Structures are given as structure tokens and as C-alpha cells.
Amino acid sequence: MADDRLPRRVALLGSGVIGGGWAARLLLSGVDVALYDPAPGASEIAETQLRRAQRAWSRLTLAPSPRSGTLTLAGTVAEAVAGAELVQESAPEREPLKIDLLAQACAAAPANAIIASSTSGLLPTQISAGMPHPERFLVAHPFNPVYLLPLVELCGGVHTSPETIERAASLYRALGMHPLIVRHEIDGFIADRLLEAVWREALWLVHDGVATAEEIDDALRYGPGLRWSTMGTFLIYRLAGGEAGMRHFMAQFGPALQLPWTKLTDVPELDDELLDRLVSESDAQAAGRSIEELARVRDDCLVAVLSGLRGQSWGAGVDIAATERRWQRAALTATDGVAAAGDGLLHLHQAIVAPDWIDYNGHMTEYRYLQVLADTTDRFLPLIGAGGDYAASGSSFYTVETHIRHLGEAHAGDRLSVSTRLLAHDPKRLHLFHEIRRADDGSPVATGEHMLLHVDMAAGRAVPAGAEVLAALDRIAESQRELPWPDSAGRAIGAGQASAAPTPNL
User: Are 172 and 319 contacting, i.e. CB atoms less than 8 angstroms apart?
Assistant: First the structure.
């Protein structure tokens, strides 16, 4: 949403796997963090998670990440929450501990601060019992690794205000997350209830000797796990019903739900024998890999899945793409008007070569050059008063001719800068010349020459532009009157410069 913005400062209470993951996501997004955790090694956990996050995101996107936020260690809860816009508690799942921490945070935090808990199952009404202002408290339950997985479940208690939920959703979206609002306060919320159902069945299958830990994991990662990452459960079953959809699926497979397959309401006793078997089989699966090695494998596989989903604009890939665009916008120079570069040209557009712009040769594919040039023209038109509002009134400039010269190679991650020259204009025509250069070294990449015709869209014919548009064009033309004629302007394929005269044939 347009009004989503990053929190200015966040306080973290607890720095375990989840708290450290929060720290990594926040710092990588450019947010300053104050961390309170009396346990030894708290900052090291957060720094380890940050290194993992930086590595993962560098593989996921070539968009330059924002300048990292600062991490400050606080000696007390009050010190941590001072000046915080958001307080995120991630202490161990012990209800008395959370009640105490949250009460302290609420009492000391600014009046407009949102207080959130990362609890994976405790009810928000219960753990906010000691808070003086429970209306600004909610559960914000993330998933590990927090710095990569977008989902965050938002669940309010009986006293939580709707405004708190709305504000929190906006803040988490700005952090690149996908807020899922849990409408009813319920133990375990949504995702964990589903995960626990699978976990109970998995434990029974090991307990009964039906399958090993590795075989159960294989059953998930080679089959339904891949489907779940794209469509979840209900949409997949709708597909399984064929053209008749969900009703046909339920008629065909619904009766099987009555069969005595499941032990969902029962849990095997976690005696030493079962625990020893689980530990032994888990050790065998790890095959000597350290936690850090396994974390890298997990992150790299998630990056591959998320990259694929991003390419399809589907599921979690939509949230990843939104974060990527946000980082790209932040990295580019704001150019709402004419950028002053001292060369008399208009500097209206910059771009970063995205991974999906690259062809089989490892260079920017041909049509992306046209996209960059067209985007530049789209920045020029509002400058002369012929933007979206002008088009809505029934008139617009249509491109009728384009000539692109490819002068260099652009690679993934390159920053491109485009300069614009108004070569000529008359009441009905507009002659533009764009030059794309690599921003880092100024080397030329391509030029684009474009002829645009001013059109009455309802009549479908060329008509003179409005007086204000023509006046704006006159001003730009006058400011660029002394500029030399571009060497490649007017060239045809395989030909030299058509004319040395700086006057086009309009």
C-alpha cells in the first residue's frame, strides 16, 4: 500500500533464533534496532542471523539493499523501548516471562508504540494481562528464518484496537512481509495448527515403525511440500476436482475423512526410546553437517523457490518482488523534476538491471533497452504537462518511430542512467533523443531516437498539442539550443550520420 512505511526504530526483547531473525530483517531493511536480552551471546546470535540474511538476499536479488540499520544493545527493557515505534518480544514460550516483559515494555514505551509478541501459540489476551494499555498489543507471529519467509500472523486480544492491527500490518508490509490477520483469538493461530497436525502424524509414524524421520521428510519435500509452496491446500484440492472443482473433489474424497487413518487427537508418549530414535535418525539425516551448513542449505533452497515464485508473480514471490522494487526505488536518485547535471541535458530516469532482464548471453536482453527508453519518455511527458491527467482528458503523445543503437553491454546489477535531449518539436510532433549510460563509469550502453505524434484519442487522428504543453516544449528547446547535435541522431541501419546539420526534418 502507498502509505506503508518502515518503522523508524524497533525494540527487540529476546535474541534467540526468532529474535535474531527479526534483527536481521530489520537491520537489512535499514531500520535501527535496540536489543534487550540478558543472556550471554545475544548480540552474536543477531550478528550471525544478519550475515545469513545478507548472504541469502544477495543471492535472491541484485537490487542494492538499503544501508544497514544500527544495532544497539540495551541494558534494560526501558532502555530498549525508549523512542521505539514498534516493540517486538521474542522471549522463550513461558507465559509468566512474557507477561512480565510485555508489561514492562508497555509501561516504558512511547504512547504511540505498538507492542507485539512473536509467540507461536500463547493467546494475546492472556499474555497482555499485565499491560497498562493492552489496546496497543497484538501477536505478530513470524516463521523461521524470519529474514526470508514473508508470513507474519497478526492476532489481537479482546482489548486490541482495530487501529493497532491496521498500523501493525502497514509496518510489517513495509518490511517486506505478508501480514495474515487472524480474525479470532485461537491457540496456535492458523499456520502452527496446521503444522502441529502434520507433526503429530509424523511422530506416530516414527513411533509405530512405519517410516523413518528421513522417509517422512522425503514424503513431504518431494511431493506435497512443493505444491504447498505454490497453492497451499484448498486451491490444490480444487484442481484435483477437475473442471467440477471443489464440490466434485469433496464428493469423491470427502468420505475418506471418516476413515480411521489419523491420530490427530492423540500424541505418542515421548519416552526415552522414541526420543533416542528421533535423535539418532535426525543425526543420520544431518550426515555430519553443522547447524551453519544446514542453515545455508535451507536458505539457498528457499532462495531458489522464492526466485521461481517471484518470476511467476505468485504466492510469496509477490512479496519478494515488492521488497526488491522498494530497494530499487530507494537506491535510485529521486527525479521528480529535471535533474541538474550541468550538461544541459534532462536526467529523468535511472534503472537497475534486474536478474530477469538477462538473456542467454548474460547481457540485458534486447526488449529491456526499449523498456528503459520508454520509461524515460514516460518521465518526460509529465514534465511538459502531458502525463496521466492529460491523457485522461482525451489527448496524448503516441510513439510512431523508434531507432535504437546498441553501443555496449549491460549486465545484471548494473545501474543505468538516461539523459534526454529534445531535438525538435512542432504543434503535432515531438522528436526525442535518449542516451543510456552505465552510471558507475559513464560508459555508453545505447541510444534511442523517438518520434511522437500528438493524438486526439477519441478521433484517432493527429491534432496540435495544448498551449501549455507547447510552451513547456519551447522552454526546454531554448535551454538546450546550444547543445551539439548528437552524433548518432538521424542515423539509419548501416549508414553514417544522415546530416551534420542540427536541424531535423520536421
Answer: no
Could you give the C-alpha distances from 413 to 58, 112, 222, 439, 489, in angstroms and in order?
11, 39, 33, 11, 28
Domain-located, residue 235: yes
| Domain at 112, CATH number | 3.40.50.720
Q: What number of other Cβ atoms are within 10 A of residue 413's Cβ?
A: 14
Structure confidence at residue 156 (pLDDT): 97
What Å distances lie between residue 243 and 91, 231, 237, 246, 254, CA to CA? 48, 17, 12, 9, 17
**What's the predicted TM-score (pTM) here?**
0.68
How big is the CA angle at 498 (ends 495 and 502), to the nearest 5 degrees? 150
Mark whether 383 and 457 lie in a shared domain: yes
Cell of 238: 480444487
**Beta carbons of 127 and 116 less than 8 angstroms apart:** no
370 and 450 fall within a common domain: yes
In DSSP notation, 184-234 reads S--TTTTHHHHHHHHHHHHHHHHHTTS--HHHHHHHHHTTHHHHHHHHTTH
Q: What Å distances lie between residue 98 and 22, 48, 93, 260, CA to CA?
A: 17, 25, 8, 39
Q: Detail the DSSP E strand segments found in 313-443.
A: 346-352, 395-406, 415-425, 429-438
State how beta strands 444-456 and 395-406 pair. antiparallel
Domain enclosing residue 261, as ranges: 204-288
Q: Based on the domain organization, do 346 and 396 belong to the same domain?
A: yes
- In this structure, the answer to whether residues 472 and 354 fall within a common structural domain is yes
Provide the domain count of the chain.
3
Note whether residue 169 is domain-resident.
yes
**Residue 165 and residue 226 in one domain:** no
What H or E segment, with its residue span, contains residue 89?
Answer: strand 86-89
Let me know whether 36 and 172 are in one domain. Answer: yes
Cα within 13 Å of Cα(302), Cβ side: 22
Contact 454/393 with Cβ under 8 angstroms? no
The Cα 114–Cα 188 span in angstroms is 21
Query: Which residues 6+ apart lie within 8 Å of 169 measured at CB?
Result: 154, 179, 181
Q: Is residue 452, in this structure, part of any structural domain at all?
A: yes
Say yes or no: 345 and 426 in one domain.
Answer: yes
Tell me the average pLDDT across 159-165.
97
What percent of the chain is modeled with pLDDT above 70? 92
Query: Is residue 9 packed enough to be buried (19+ CB in 10 Å), middle (13-18) or exposed (0-12)?
Result: buried
Query: What are the pLDDT digits (tens) for 240-272?
Result: 878 887 887 778 877 776 666 666 667 778 788
CATH number assigned to the domain comprising residue 273:
1.10.1040.10
CA distance 6 to 47: 21
Q: Based on the fold, state whether residues 218 and 348 are members of the same structural domain.
A: no
The CATH number that applies at residue 447 is 3.10.129.10
